[in-house]
Amino acid sequence: MKKRINFIKFIKSSGVMFLISLALILIGFEAFDNNKEFHNRANKMHEDYINRKKELVKQEVLQTIDLINYKMGVDKENEQIEKKLL
């Protein structure tokens, strides 16, 4: 009878240890997956931020080039008017 009780206790404790081990494995896997997903999102956000900044710089450069071309065009027109007047 004593052996049977010890065997039942062993089965119960083994079952509990198995469930605890399974829970720890699942928690570890979930933590790893969440960490990986977090880093993927962070990298994507960083990439989007860099692309927005690049686009902003590109727009500012184009505006500056347009302004320079406009001023050069006005200066050329003024030179042509001055030549005609002279």
What coarse outline follows from CA principal-axis ratios?
rod-shaped
| Overall radius of gyration | 37 Å
- Average per-residue pLDDT, rounded, comes to 90
How many DSSP E strands?
A: 0
Largest sheet: none
Approximate helicity band: over 70%
Low-confidence stretches: none
SS-based class:
mainly alpha
Order of helices and strands: H
In whole angstroms, the N-to-C terminal distance is 126 Å
Tally the helices: what do you get? 1
User: Which range does the strand content fall in?
Assistant: under 5%
Could you outline the blueprint of secondary structure elements for this entry?
Blueprint: H1 2-85
Summarize the structure.
With 86 residues, the chain is mainly alpha-helical. It contains 1 helix and no strands.
Q: What features would you highlight for this structure?
A:
mainly alpha; single chain; 86 residues
Write a structural description.
With 86 residues, the protein is an all-alpha fold. It is 98% helix and 0% strand. The chain contains 1 helix and no strands. The termini are far apart. The mean pLDDT is 90.
